[in-house]
Amino acid sequence: MEKMTTQETITELSQKPSIYSLQLSELKEWLKEQNEKAFRAEQIFDWLYKKRVSDFAQMSNLSKNLRDMLSEHFTLTTLNTIIKQESADGTIKFLFELHDGYSIETVLMRHDYGNSVCVTTQVGCRIGCTFCASTLGGLKRHLEAGEIVSQVVKVQQALDETEERVSSVVIMGIGEPFDNFDNMLSFLKIINHDQGLNIGARHITVSTSGIIPKIYQFADENMQINFAISLHAPNTELRSRLMPINKAYKLPDLMEAVRYYINKTGRRVSFEYGLFGGVNDQVEHAKELASLIKDVKCHVNLIPVNYVPERDYVRTPRDQIFLFEKTLKDAGVNVTIRREQGSDIDAACGQLRAKERKEETR
Ligand code: SF4
């Protein structure tokens, strides 16, 4: 584990808005208000996202006056790296401190198809899934769009040292992204913009526990990004036990919203299904799940969950995992067992807590 001793200190973090919160169009508006030319916005984006400078003073093709105005109004140092911890398989966890002293975790995962960053969208979370040990303290606050964008920029800056690139982003860290919808949407637009980080829509995945009105709103945005639902149960009663959000947004209504999304975007969805020993992992649950999603264009990710110390959940035995998978396959469901990878972040919604491990389920 590497403790950071850079010049970054929390005292340098400012409460000025982060420039990373601005979409290109918003930056153009701001420039117009300052009687500056709109094309400067493209130059600034280039410095932020292509050259990835860490000081406005480095933006050498801008006038001194504009650089001073930028630093008077905005901050570039949104996150302070406290810890950078690397697993044997190359996974890197970053602990970042925010301007108000809260800290958040961001994870870089290495895959054979590229480098993926898992971002956090809130400090804490109010959804209260019963298997989630990391958010027992509830929601502290939403992250600004710039605080989410900065997570990706910070990881990319770390990769710059080895000339690697962030190729995909998953919004599955702590927090419910659709509970911080506007900031999440700005984040998506900034990282997807070809003059921003230029991460293709199909290389971005967002996962929700099922805030139904926001699923409709998201569908209407028609962004073509990958969309995952944390399902975890095949019926209302069991889902309400695992995920209290199901009491407010019930399973049949959730499935209707999912169908709307598919019709609107033409894309399939992924259902994340954590297997909890003796709770939702029996053959009858698999059959019920197959029936629930039989006419839905989808893929199911099975996530074997390890023992959760703060909860009573235990791991599903290996044979049972394969039996569950086979039952779904026999029913015609497109299903995979998620390969477990180097840390506790590779689970639905980021928070199906498990011990650090490196093994494959098959
Ligand atoms: S699993 Fe995700 S949505 Fe559920 S409480 Fe944890 S962070 Fe929130």
Description:
By secondary structure, the chain is α/β, with parallel strands linked by helices. It has 2 domains: 18-73, DNA polymerase, domain 1; 80-350, TIM Barrel (Alpha-Beta Barrel), CATH 3.20.20. Helices cover 33% and strands 18% of the residues. The chain is built from 11 helices and 13 strands. It has helices spanning 24-33, 40-50, 64-73, 145-160, 181-192, 212-221, 236-242, 245-248, 251-265, 283-292, 318-330; strands at residues 2-3, 80-86, 92-97, 103-111, 114-118, 122-123, 141-142, 166-171, 204-208, 226-230, 269-275, 298-304, 335-337. An 11-stranded mixed sheet has the order 1-2-3-4-5-8-9-10-11-12-13, covered by helices on one side. The protein has a two-stranded antiparallel ribbon with strand order 6-7. Helix 11 links the parallel strand 12 (298-304) and strand 13 (335-337). Helix 4 (145-160) packs parallel to helix 5. The two termini are 30 Å apart.
**Ligands bound to this protein structure:** iron/sulfur cluster
Instruction: Work out the helix count.
Output: 11
Provide the number of structural domains. 2
How much helix is in the residues? 25-40%
Stated plainly, the CATH topology of the largest domain is called: TIM Barrel
Unreliable segments of 5+ consecutive residues:
3-13, 342-362
What is the helix/strand order? EHHHEEEEEEHEHEHEHHHEHEHE
For the biggest β-sheet, the strand order reads 1-2-3-4-5-8-9-10-11-12-13
Terminus-to-terminus distance: 30 Å
Family: Belongs to the radical SAM superfamily. RlmN family.
GO cellular component, one term: cytoplasm
EC number: 2.1.1.192
Protein name: Probable dual-specificity RNA methyltransferase RlmN
